[in-house]
Specification:
CATH architecture: 2-Layer Sandwich
Shape: globular
Number of strands: 8
Radius of gyration: 15 Å
Distance between the termini: 24 Å
Oligomer: single chain
Number of domains: 1
Order of helices and strands: EEHEEEEEEHH
CATH class: Alpha Beta
Number of helices: 3
Length: 161
């Protein structure tokens, strides 16, 4: 377990899903807000050494989102998608596509469950093929997910103060 409570990244062999479970010491309203507030996203999303900007973020069914992450050399890595379901503060469903690998779209569902002041986020990404899912796993996404959740945990602690 890391400092953020990231407790599990799982992917069943031969399956199309990646499931990430994280536990945060914060009420789910705060966690949901961090996932949906374009002013907060740049403070926690992506690798620590990158800078993230929100190009667009229309958090409603049918609304689009696009984030751009930049490294210190100026290389850009853009991600985009469409929101399918938004149920504050319980659930988000959206598509996700890395623009560097177009047409490899996943469907992501995040659920937010609060128990005694802590919030468990279960994020499930379903890929179109096993090969797409395996490619994501091989891309270093585990490091990215861990750093992102660490940064989110730090932000949530700041918001509590």
């Amino acid at each position: 377990m890391t400092k953020n409570g990231l407790s599990n990244i799982s992917a069943e062999p031969g399956g199309r899903e990646i499931v990430i479970i994280s536990v945060f010491d914060a009420p789910r309203e705060h966690v949901f807000r961090a996932y949906t507030d374009p002013n907060l996203i740049p403070q926690w999303w992506g690798l620590e050494e990158h800078t993230t900007t929100v190009d667009t973020m229309d958090v409603r069914p049918g609304g689009v989102w696009r984030l751009v992450s930049r490294d210190s050399n100026g290389n850009e890595f853009a991600f985009k998608g469409v929101y399918h379901s938004v149920v504050p503060p319980e659930r988000l469903v959206r598509t996700s596509e890395f623009e560097g690998m177009p047409s490899h779209v996943s469907l992501e569902t995040a659920t937010f469950e609060e128990h005694d002041g802590t919030t468990t986020v279960t994020a499930t990404a379903v890929f179109q093929t096993v090969e797409d899912r395996d490619g994501m796993l091989q891309s270093g996404m585990e490091r990215g997910a861990t750093e992102t959740m660490d940064r989110l945990a730090e932000l949530l602690q700041k918001l509590k103060r």
